[in-house]
Design a protein that fits this description.
This protein is mainly alpha-helical. It has helices spanning 2-28, 35-58, 60-66, 69-98, 103-112, 114-132, 138-141, 144-159, 165-185.
């Protein structure tokens, strides 16, 4: 019975992961022009999943005392994979609906708009994390998440025509998180 409950929780978490996608598609079907809505909404979900993942990792010790370690690992994995999937879905409307699969135009846009290049770098890091997420090497590459999160936050802020309070908070959170992780992993050794 306990094993069934564990799998049920996993299924519920996966369903919850895709609820925003269903909502976004439902709203998009009621619009005349959907490309910008899809790009921004899917990107927002990706960045929010990154923030969720960051918070889960910051409260890891108290969280593990409430749930099993394997469920904690699953939550981390599903949030990370979800952030990657939503990032890919975020790019598809841009590539298909706005650029019409004209990769020459996309290349020119990357150089003209720096925030797109920053987003591409973040996506490449997310791709590396996704590829290794099911291997033992993942432990070694997982610190790349911090860099991907900061780059994603920069992409998010720079892509806005007017920087909102929410965007500033996301950027500050990402920088503070990266600084915290850096200081935590590079503690000075006591000299005796």
């Amino acid at each position: 019975m306990r094993k069934f409950g564990f799998y049920l929780i996993r299924v519920i978490l996966v369903i919850i992961l895709f609820v925003p996608l269903a909502y976004i598609i439902f709203n998009a079907l009621q619009m005349a022009v959907i490309d910008k809505y899809l790009i921004h909404s899917l990107g927002d979900v990706s960045i929010y999943l990154c923030i969720f993942l960051m918070i889960v990792n910051l409260i890891a010790k108290p969280l593990i005392s409430l749930i099993t370690f394997s469920l904690f690992k699953f939550i981390n994995k599903i949030a990370g994979i979800g952030a990657f999937v939503y990032a890919i879905l975020h790019i598809l409307p841009y590539v298909i609906l706005q650029q019409h699969l004209l990769f020459g135009n996309i290349g020119a846009e990357l150089w003209d708009r720096g925030y797109l290049l920053i987003g591409l770098l973040a996506l490449i890091i997310f791709l590396i994390l996704f590829i290794f997420s099911f291997t033992k090497i993942f432990i070694k590459v997982s610190p790349l998440f911090q860099m991907a999160f900061v780059l994603s936050s920069m992409h998010f802020v720079l892509s806005l025509k007017q920087v909102t309070f929410e965007a500033k908070i996301i950027l500050i959170i990402s920088i503070v998180y990266m600084a915290y992780k850096y200081l935590k992993t590079n503690k000075p050794k006591n000299i005796k």
